[in-house]
Amino acid sequence: MNRIEQYQGNLLNHIEALYRPGERELALALVEALGCSVSDTGFSGDGPESFLAVHPNPGDADIRNNAFYISPMRPEQQALEASLARLARDDRELRAALEGYRGAARTLPFGVSHFGLRYVSEDALKEAYAAVGETLSERLGERLHLRIFHPEDGEGAQATMVQAFVYQDVIVSGSFTYGQLIELQGPAR
Ligand SMILES: [Fe+2]
Questions:
Q1: What integer pLDDT is reported at residue 56 of this predicted model?
Q2: Cα 136 to averaged position of ligand 1 atoms, centre (Å)
Q3: What is the pLDDT of residues 89-123, one digit of tens each?
Q4: Residues, Cβ < 5 Å to ion ligand 1
Q5: pLDDT tens digit string along 54-86?
Q6: What's the gap in Å between 160 CA and the centre of ligand 1?
Q7: What is the distance between the alpha carbons of residues 1 and 164, in angstroms, rounded to a whole number?
């Protein structure tokens, strides 16, 4: 198989994502259930823990390309998330809007911001979403939701692929208050 570093064109090369302080091990459990491998970049920036590079293709651990990074949420975002949580507790309108958004993310993920991982086969895709459910649903409870679209359901984006949407707030490239959808995509048999 060609290595990503041999690819000559421009490409989408990484996503910067975060976990909550204290949840590094939980974030690792999630990405490993997704079938990814992990490299420690050794780079910490201004944070207390090193950036981990997560590789969707475990056989090609290029820390620069085809990877997403995870590192702990910084104090500025912790302050913002804490303010949002406090406001949501006190403001019925904001609380309702958040619940509406989270409901859409669980049930109608198309058009809700996300990033996607591609799997080489439907079996590989199934293995990943089954592992996420088995290893994390008990620990995460309401923090994890899985929605699978098969072509025969007629609700997915395309007839040629299976899409599994993992909605969670362990790893986000954005807001922990909003949560993060990760789409797992594979070819339909
Ligand atoms: Fe998508």
A1: 97
A2: 22
A3: 999 999 999 999 999 999 999 999 999 999 999 99
A4: 116, 183
A5: 999 999 999 999 999 999 999 999 999 999 999
A6: 14
A7: 25
pTM passes above 0.90: yes
Side-chain half-sphere exposure of 101, counting CA atoms within 13 A: 15
Residue 183 CA to ligand 1 centre (angstroms):
6
pLDDT score of 33 more than 70: yes
CA of 50 relative to ligand 1 center, distance in Å: 29
Torsion region of 166: left, alpha or beta (phi above 0 gives left; psi -120 to 50 gives alpha): beta
156 contacts 163 by C-beta, under 8 angstroms = yes
CA 140 / ligand 1 centre spacing (Å): 23
Between the CA of 43 and the centroid of ligand 1 the distance, in Å, is 30
Query: What is the Cα–Cα distance from 24 to 143, expressed in whole angstroms?
Result: 16
157-178: per-residue pLDDT in tens? Answer: 677 899 999 999 999 999 999 9
In the reported structure, the alpha carbon of residue 116 is separated from the centroid of ligand 1 by a whole-number distance in angstroms of: 6
Taking the centre of ligand 1 as the mean of its atom positions, its distance from the CA of residue 110, in whole angstroms, is 6
Environment class of residue 46 by beta-carbon count within 10 Å: exposed (0-12), middle (13-18) or buried (19+)?
exposed
Q: How far is the CA of 46 from the centre of ligand 1 (A)?
A: 32
pLDDT tens digits, residue range 125-148? 999 999 999 999 999 999 999 999
